[in-house]
Amino acid sequence: MLLQKLNQALDLLATLQANGYIRGFALIGGLAVSAWSPPRATMDIDLLVLAKPEQLDHLVEALRDAGMKAELRRGGSDDPVPFLIRADCLDIVVATKKYQAETVEQSISVNIAGRDIPVASPEYLIILKLKAGGPRDLLDIRELLASDLVDKALLAKLATRYRVDKLLQEVIHQTCL
Q1: Alpha-carbon span 68 to 60, nearest angstrom
Q2: What DSSP string describes 16-39?
Q3: Which of 21, 42, 61, 103 could form a disulfide with 30 if both were Cys (CB 3.0 to 4.6 A apart)?
Q4: How far is residue 51's CA from residue 93's CA, in Å, rounded to a whole number?
Q5: Angle at 130 between CA 39 and CA 30, to 5 degrees
Q6: Residues pairing with 92 in the sheet
């Protein structure tokens, strides 16, 4: 079921990108972590999308036309996720911050279940997880760091640029204990 929804979402997003409604997308969240480290259970599909706010209603309509129950949630100006589209088991975060846009732009094509999918790189995925800061996010960071796929120099540079370097050091220190 989850794989079917992922394929449906990928087909839809690829079409929207080809038609100029979005500029790109990347898999984030638990499935992305599983692309770089041992698989873990997840109940949803998290995607990060580059789209202009005026295109979001079109994206929601396209999801509905594909048979999904979709809604756009708008947060306040201080909300860390000002635009979130929920559609069945999909959580589509609209990139509004520079680090989110870079995550999509620097995504890496990974073959998952026979399909090439743009996935957030381990370094950018860690930045997203540090920014989110939940308990599951911290566990995911530890898994990613243990995978030996992380470019530590790039991660340190990104963590400094996006002001999460102290938090990263705390997580690394706790992981080494």
Answers
A1: 9
A2: HHHTTS-SEEEEEHHHHHHHHSS-
A3: 42
A4: 10
A5: 20
A6: 47, 85
Residue pLDDT, tens place only, 60-72:
999 999 999 999 9
Extract the tokens encoding 169: 């050091």
What is the rounded CA–CA span in Å between residue 13 and residue 92? 11
What six digits make up the tokens of 174?
């706790």
Q: Which amino acid is at 16?
A: L
Report domain 2-176's class. Answer: alpha beta
Q: Is the pTM of this model over 0.90?
A: yes
Nearest to 45 by CA among 85, 99, 95, 103: 85
Backbone angles phi, psi at 58, to 5 degrees: -65, -40
The string of pLDDT tens digits covering residues 6-50 is 999 999 999 999 999 999 999 999 999 999 998 888 889 999 999
- Helix, strand, coil percentages in the chain from 3-state DSSP, rounded to 5: 50, 20, 30
What residues does each domain of the chain span?
2-176
Quick: pLDDT tens for 39-59. 888 889 999 999 998 999 999
